[in-house]
Structure formats: structure tokens, C-alpha cells
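Our consortium's second objective concerns turning raw sequence data into structural hypotheses that experimental partners can test. To show how far this objective has progressed, the report includes one record in full. It was chosen at random from the queue rather than selected for favorable results. The single chain below, 319 residues long, was entered without modification.
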Amino acid sequence: MGWLRRGPRRDGDDAPRDPGFAYFSQREAALFRGRVRETFAELGLEVSVYADHVVDDKGRRFGLGNLAAVCHQDRRGPRVWPGMINRHIGLVVRAMDGPSALDTLPPEQIRSQLYPRVVSGDGIDAAAFGYARTVAPGLYEILALDLPESVMMLTDDALERLGDHAQLRDRALRNLRGLPVEEHETVRDADGMCFEIILGDSFYTASRVLDLEGVARRVTGAPLGEHGALVAMPFRHQLAFHPIRDTSIIPALGAMASFAASGYEDTPGAISPYVFWWRGGTLTQLSEHDEERGDLRIVVGDEFQELLERLIAQGPDPR
């Protein structure tokens, strides 16, 4: 609860905002970037600091978006930022400077630690991830190697060293299906709106949309059915879905659109602020940001409109 926050208060919304990270005031952003520069210097690296990334003297680029979002989300305020920044940058530098896990781990161990990740196209270099599979507009599936202190997103060059991509992807999907469901919540209101949320510390929680049928069976005890489901993946630690069976889809669609938009904002590992129609593994976007009005709107194509009309004619689910 905000009124129990300890430590220095954050600047109010009326303070001048930072153009790179709008959730920071200009003063807070200067504190954040200054500490980032100091931490790299303490590790022997001089960096040039830009709005959302730094570049060291070897030309290596380090993004700051996730770290900034983690700091912003911590209710304890700027007093804890130095420690958080030190830990994060220390992990990143050790991973960059140390021997590659691809050179030190046995091949079978590498395969056992492979997972598919659904990521926003904003977070990857298209030239380095040419193999990435399009999941939905702006969203891609890549392969990642899960390590004790980090997650290594595998580039084209890395995959070439590991073997056949199709076989690696099959193994990664099997590994994903074997993960436990860490937390499950059902969100509902008095008017009958409901949807399911999967939550967890795993970096692959949202990526379980690639195994949505299996996840739905595990948490609801029932298959999804011929019409599929509504899904939302606001950031890497959340996946929401609503099996489509009757007109309860209508309130669920609006609620999930709001859930996705609010969950996406200012979060580390952000994926998408939109809600999608999942059907047989294919995702169709159903919400978007209205540039003129500055809010969300629902957008449906002919197929989804026809589905809605059939569900309305069908009436409530007899179950």
C-alpha cells in the first residue's frame, strides 16, 4: 500500500518527466543513469549513457529498459536503487566477460536448459535473430538457454553451433511443458466476468501461450474447445486466458484488454499490451491503442464477429 511506503518518496506526477522513461521524473532519471554509469566504472568499464541504453568502449550495447522498470516498480524508492543496479549490472558484465555457457556446458545439459520465449520485437535485433518465428504482429518466438544467473537468448550464430533448429525447438517446447504452474488465480466479478491468470517468477511464464492447451487442462481440468480462447501476455511473468464457450467472452474481452494494457505498462520484460484470440496455436490481435483518443479499443475481424454472433444465438453455456 502506497501510504506505508518506506524511504524517500517518489516525485509527484507534476514534476518534469524524463523523455526516455516517463515514469521517472527528470531528477529520478538523473539519479538512475548516474548510478548506472558509476557501477560500470567500478567494474572497469567506461560507458556512454543514452536515454535507454549505454555503450562501452568496445561497442557493446547494454539496454536499460528492464532495469529502469524494476527500479520504478520497487515501492521502497530510490534509496534501494544502488543495490539493485549493482546486482543487475554485475550479472550482465559477468555473463558478457566470462566464458560462454555454449563452450563450457555438455550438449545434453544445454538441450535440457533450452526454452522457447515469446518476446516483443522491440527487444531483439532482427539481424541477429533471423530464425525467430512470428507469433503475432510484433511478437516473436526465440530460443533461450536458462542459466543460474541469467537467460541467454540464442542468436543465429549460437544455434548454428548447436544443431538442427527444428529439433532444438521441439526439445525446448518439451522443456516448457514440463515446468510447474507456480501460481494460478481466477479473476471474476459479480456480473459473471471471469478469466484465468498464470503467474510465476519464471521468465517463461507468458511464453506458455505456446502450450496453452496443456496449461488450460492443468489449471481448469478441461480442454479449450473448438473456439479457442482469449489470451493476454502483458509481461514475462503473467499469462491470462479465457476459454471461449459462450457469451461470457464479451465481458471477459473488455476486462482482459484493460488487464493487458495495465500489466504491460512500466514492467520489466514487457511483451504486449493487447489481448488476442488464440485458436489452434494462431494468435489474432483483438485490441489496439487508439492514437486519436489515447485509449484502448476493441477491433474484431469478420471471423471473430461471426463467432460472436453464433455464441449470442447459442445462448449461455449449459455447463
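The partners drew two points from this record. The two ends are 39 Å apart (CA to CA). The chain has a mean pLDDT of 90. Both points have been shared with the crystallography group to help prioritize constructs.
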